[in-house]
Design brief:
Structural class: little secondary structure
Radius of gyration: 15 Å
Order of helices and strands: H
Distance between the termini: 28 Å
Shape: globular
Strand content: under 5%
C-alpha cells in the first residue's frame, strides 16, 4: 500500500497530496526536503498542545512530535500568528 507500494501512510490524506509529498522527499529525493514554519506555511490554526485551551489558557505538552522535556513548553501557537504573516492556510480542521 501507499505510494510506490512502500506503505507511505496511513494518515489523513495519505492517498492525496499529503501522502505523495513525503513519498517524493523521503523516497525519490531523500535529503532534499526543507521543514518550513507550519504557522506561516500551511497554517491550520490548530491547538499546538495535547490538552484543550480553556479561557485562552493553553494546557498540556507540545504536539510537535519531539516530546522532549527541554522544549515541551516552547511550541508556537499558530492561532496567535498575525494573519498578515501567514503565507498559506489549510482548512482540514474547519
Amino acid at each position: 500500500g501507499g505510494w510506490g507500494g512502500l506503505g507511505f501512510g496511513p494518515f489523513y490524506g495519505s492517498m492525496t497530496f499529503q501522502g505523495i509529498i513525503p513519498y517524493y522527499y523521503d523516497h525519490l529525493h531523500p535529503g532534499t526536503g526543507v521543514e518550513l514554519n507550519h504557522c506561516v506555511y500551511n497554517n491550520m490554526a490548530d491547538n499546538p498542545r495535547d490538552k484543550p485551551t480553556k479561557n485562552d489558557i493553553v494546557n498540556g505538552n507540545c504536539r510537535d512530535g519531539y516530546n522532549r522535556p527541554d522544549t515541551h513548553d516552547k511550541c508556537e501557537d499558530c492561532r496567535s500568528r498575525p494573519f498578515e504573516d501567514v503565507f498559506t492556510t489549510h482548512f482540514t480542521l474547519c
